[in-house]
Amino acid sequence: MRVPILTYHAVNIAGNDYASNDHVAFAADLEMLHATGWRIVPLHWIVEQRLGKADRDLRRCVALTCDDGSDFDYHDLDHPQHGRQRSLYNLLLDFRARHGRAAQPDLHLTVFAIADPSARTAMDRACLIGHDWMQEHWWRAAQSSGLVAIENHSWDHNHPCLANPGPAGLVRGDFHDVTTDAKADHEIRQAQDYLAARLAPHRPSLFCYPFGHVNAFLADDWLPRNGEAIGLAAAFGDGAQPATTQSHRWNIPRYICGWHWKSPAELAAILDQAA
């Protein structure tokens, strides 16, 4: 298993070309992956393979994720500077309408969502467009679609726009500061419970570190002690390597659009290296 996990941020809209807009990049990448013979599979398949719970043929497979859980993930929205944006979910539907279900039968996107409603409101006003486009009303419909899974991206991202210090003395803007049981309970356990209550019977089983900030306390101590008990099977960072059966269970690497690749050619190089 050498599976590239590709990550997008639907709030990354600074223009309407590949390099400046993750919606444009996502649509182009779906076509390129299909045209070059890559099979898109659900992220939980990679976890099941890593944990020895499945033995699928995952050669030339790729998984798709997006972070934060904005309304741009699910709804088409009119961006005030850059116009109508087709949601990532609808781009999946568009791809399926063009090519048919048999073309990518396991087509899937994992959305890592921020749980706390007040934090999402604060982030929308401080960092996005201030249109309250970080809601949760679409989570259940997305989860029920079979094309999307809603997973855990922490309680409040420990975002710098929030009151500092946060609960248990959290230094805002740095997820590396989650270094005690109290802080981890606030950021990860609380998010698990909130998401599970809104998505039942689905309960999140995957966690993604905000900012890609992975520390030894979480990856080597708290999550190994508590992850399974709260329903988590694995966690994801941003290590820019393919996921393999040897990947750290609580720090499986991903590639980030706009950081690890900024063009179709750069993504093609990542895929060539993985293959």
TrEMBL record:
Transmembrane segments: none
Domain NodB homology: 60-216
Record Pfam families: Polysacc_deac_1
Major subcellular location class: secreted
InterPro entries with a match to the protein in the record: Glyco_hydro/deAcase_b/a-brl, NODB_dom, Polysacch_Deacetylase
Subcellular location: Secreted
Gene3D superfamilies: Glycoside hydrolase/deacetylase (3.20.20.370)
Protein keywords: Signal
Name recorded for this polypeptide: Polysaccharide deacetylase family protein
Classification of source organism: Bacteria, Pseudomonadati, Pseudomonadota, Gammaproteobacteria, Lysobacterales
